Amino acid sequence: MAIFHISSPHLDRWIFRQTPHNDGVWHEHTFKLEDEGETANWLVVYDRHEKPLVTRVPKERRILFVTEPPEVFSIPKSYLGQFGTVCSFYSIPEVGAALYLSQTALPWFYGVKVGGGTEPEVVLEWRDLAQADGNKERDLEITAICSKKTLTKNQIRRLRFLEVLKDRLGDRLKIYGRGFEQLDDKSEVIARSRYHLALENSFHPHYWSEKLADPILGGAFPIYAGGKHATDDFDKRGILDIDISTPKRAVENVVRFLDEKQGDAPEAKAAQKHNKTLLMNKYNFFALCSQIAAERGNEMLPSLGKSVEIIWPDKTLRQKIMPSHKKLKSLLWKASVHLFERG
After folding, report:
1. 244: domain range?
2. Which residue, 170, 212, 284, 309, has fewest beta-carbon neighbours within 10 Å?
3. pLDDT averaged over every residue in the chain
4. Which regions of 68-157 does DSSP assign to beta strands (E)?
């Protein structure tokens, strides 16, 4: 049995709903948000740590999860060097053998009420998620949950794709999210949908997020645009993979899939059920932490004799100029997408 100390400004007790008894226990391991007695065997930092963070966990048993693409957020090299394992969906040459290339188990938001500046509120716990009925009657044919952000090339692509698809499908397609019809809990829509568009922010090969996980949990057939390895992680018969860099072709594929009701086929339904089992038991954040610990095999290393502080460095010049740099990139991406991706 090992104790894992989790530190992140983005995670709180609500993440424990992703364990069978909603208590942070995953098989023989215990996960905690505090390590007051400094008894943890492993330190897990998700995205970045809560300040201040002191630990007696040796570097070899520290895991950093990289959750944002490098075009959105750049992690300083000196920060990466404080961890023995860097779990990332893209290659980071600077960390060498510490790299653990994988999807990074972003938290599920299906059944969590967010918004209004308050802490996330758990609506559906583990048992509710496990028992959710994927075969119930649904009154919405196809939905999307999306914001109108245009910070990355893929955010620009997905808005352009939704515009083309909406022109084709009309009222058959319902769009929710910031800038569209607002909602607090994604389950309010996904649980009513036969098909759901999972359009990722990033197309890095190993990247997939809650945008794919949430419809899998809620039993809506995912129509997916994102990292190419996502469909390798799951049964392909339970996901329709589309390429929104060719929007007209992608729209034709979606319309054909809907009209032929391919998602209603018995093999598609069976694949959806299997994919949900994989998601909850293999690609879950707690399962991935346990897997990394087992593979890295550093449980026998002693704790440090005295506490050390995990330090987030001051902003570099590159990070200080990044906001204006992002605005320029956004303008160039918009021009590129509309000029060169029309197919």
Report:
1. 112-281
2. 170
3. 90
4. 85-88, 99-101, 112-113, 121-122, 140-145
DSSP state of 181: B
For CA atoms 4, 1, 206, 100, give the dihedral sign: positive
For residues 129 and 266, state if they share a domain: yes
pTM: 0.91
Distance CA 87, CA 70 (A): 14
Q: Is the pLDDT of residue 321 over 50?
A: no
Nearest Cα to 21, choosing from 262, 286, 238?
286
pLDDT 10s digits, 184-194: 899 999 999 99
Antiparallel, parallel or unpaired: β 85-88 and 99-101: parallel
Give the 3-state DSSP-derived string for 33-50, with helices as H, strands as E and coil as C: CCCCCCCCCEEEEECCCC
Taking the C-alpha atoms of residue 334 and residue 343, their distance in angstroms, rounded to an integer, is: 16
At residue 18, the 3 state secondary structure works out as helix
Token reading at 287? 């399962």
pLDDT per position as a tens digit, 79-88: 999 999 999 9
Pairwise CA distance, residues 197 & 170, whole Å: 15
- pLDDT in the model for residue 54: 96
My answer on whether 133 and 268 are in the same domain is: yes
Dihedral sign for Cα 253, 254, 256, 257, please: positive
Cα separation, 253 vs 240, whole angstroms: 9
40 and 74 fall within a common domain: yes
Residue 74 shares a structural domain with residue 197: no
pLDDT band at 134 (very low <50, low <70, confident <90, very high): confident
